[in-house]
Input
Amino acid sequence: MHAAPWLFAGLALLVVASSAYQFVVLLGTLWFRRLRFREQRSLTSFTPPVSVLKPIRGADDDLEACLETFFRQDYPHYEIVFALHDPEDAAVAVIERLRQTYPGVRTTCVFQPPPLGINPKVANLAHAFNAAQYETVVLSDADIRVPPNYLRTVVRPLQHPQVGVVTCPYRGTANGGLTAHLECLGISTDFIAGVLAACLTEGMSFALGATIATRKAVIADFGGLSRLADHLGDDYLLGHLAHRAGYEVCLSSCVVETVVPRMTWRDFLSHQLRWARTIRTARPGGYTGMFITHTFWLGALLVAAFPAVPLAWHLFLVALTLRFLAAWQMANILGDRETIRRLGWLPLRDLLQMAIWMGGFGGRTVTWRGQMYRLTGDGRLLPYPLPERH
Output
């Protein structure tokens, strides 16, 4: 009984801190609107030739539509370098169709990259990087859709020598199914919300795989793409290494779109756990601190423990209001109409997110592209189970 006041005070402080986090996210959305306004008013003729690097494996139903957005760029001079492991990959036929439709866009395909490390995507990127003709390079995942002014917008900050990496926020679009919609909801209201909060409080020191615009000299300065070869979070690490090398990492105002396929619950949970464990190994302190972002469930815990205390309900309602308002604002600035329509699912998503966050502490194994790996303490990948020593 004597512990009850202390328990109430502790839980109440957690709810207040979580509400403060949601308020920071709200401030982050205002900061992003200002960034967008400033970039739209920026007048510059900085349009260096660009090599767009596209690692690809396989061809799903949306691949052609995603790649076509890169062929339709309003940009004076650029090339697209596609990197694949297998010349018989189904994506090759998609690329050929686009080549015929857009003969004015210079394209190159490179195949069968030399072994570089465990991460096959990095091997593909390094192969494309070596084939790229231009100093300015833009790395982008295969499942990304971009607007026509994409290259103009993401390359613009690189006119400043101190800027080494530019990365983009993104929203998800679901191909159907509850799990795909829940993933999209989490991208906008949790992941990118956390990115904006980081920008506002500590600045960018990492990059996102949806877009990484940089220069070859920047990659050379931190030791080359081979530094990423055994890491799962290669996009995060590229930005982090550039930051440690003394360059600024900038968030662009250009919002791109990732296509989230229909998936089973097993696939959804496997992907979320892989993401969680990757973040935990990359930023262990930051990952632990993510406990404070679970606003809905901290508030629910407070009122469940003290249902007869009016202050508990007041704090819960304030926290819940801020959570929904921050989520709505995030969806608005990202142009995520799907999330706006599905904000009623936010408590379910928050319940899953809390469980996934706890699961992130439960081990170091992850499943990626059908293979199991073990994450080391510094984020490197190891085969799992480990090969036997003889």
Remarks:
- The chain has a mean pLDDT of 90.
- The domain at 47-274 is CATH 3.90.550.10 (Spore Coat Polysaccharide Biosynthesis Protein SpsA; Chain A).
